[in-house]
Amino acid sequence: MLGWLGSAVSIVTAVLLAAHVIGLLRLRQDIGGSMHYPIAVLVSTVGLAVAAVFPMDPSLGFPPGADPAVVPSVAGAVHDVAGPTFLLGLDYAGIWPGAWSGLFERLAAYIGLGWVALTAYALRRASS
């Protein structure tokens, strides 16, 4: 029902991360440095944007009342490949049924975005 909201937030986040990558590349031109970090942020940005554009299939009991026999779609498969799959894969494979994948996904996202913010702050102070 409110899946569009999650997609919108993910797209806005991807746009902001893309702006961060542009800033990193400009800073690299000015002071030099490795391309590893900008490339890592760019790859995760593309993954987030692709996962936001392609909706996921109903699964793992969500949304409530969804038919568990729904045939996977191409869009759902693209979403599953583009997004982080390790913890979700544990649930799909039955290794850890009912995995708290949503919680872990959000913790990983918040920690990662916090790291991006701290890095941006440190680079801004260093270049001033």
Short structural summary:
The longest helix has 29 residues, at 3-31.
Total domain count: 1
Tally of alpha and pi helices: 5
Q: Residue share in helices?
A: over 70%
Total E-strand runs: 0
- Which shape, going by the Cα principal axes? elongated
Kindly report the average pLDDT value. 77
Low-confidence stretches: none
Largest sheet descriptor: none
Radius of gyration: 17 Å
Amino- and carboxy-terminal Cα gap:
46 Å
Give the helices and strands as they follow along the chain.
HHHHH
User: What portion of the residues fall into strands of 2 or more residues?
Assistant: under 5%
Describe this structure in words.
This protein has 128 residues and is mainly α. The protein has one domain (3-59, 72-127). The protein has 5 helices and no strands. The model has no long low-confidence stretch (mean pLDDT 77).
Give the topology.
Blueprint (H helix, E strand, L loop, with lengths): L2 H29 L4 H18 L20 H9 L3 H7 L8 H27 L1
Helix pairs in contact: 1-2, 1-5, 2-3
Summary keywords:
128 residues; mainly alpha; 70% helix; 0% strand; elongated
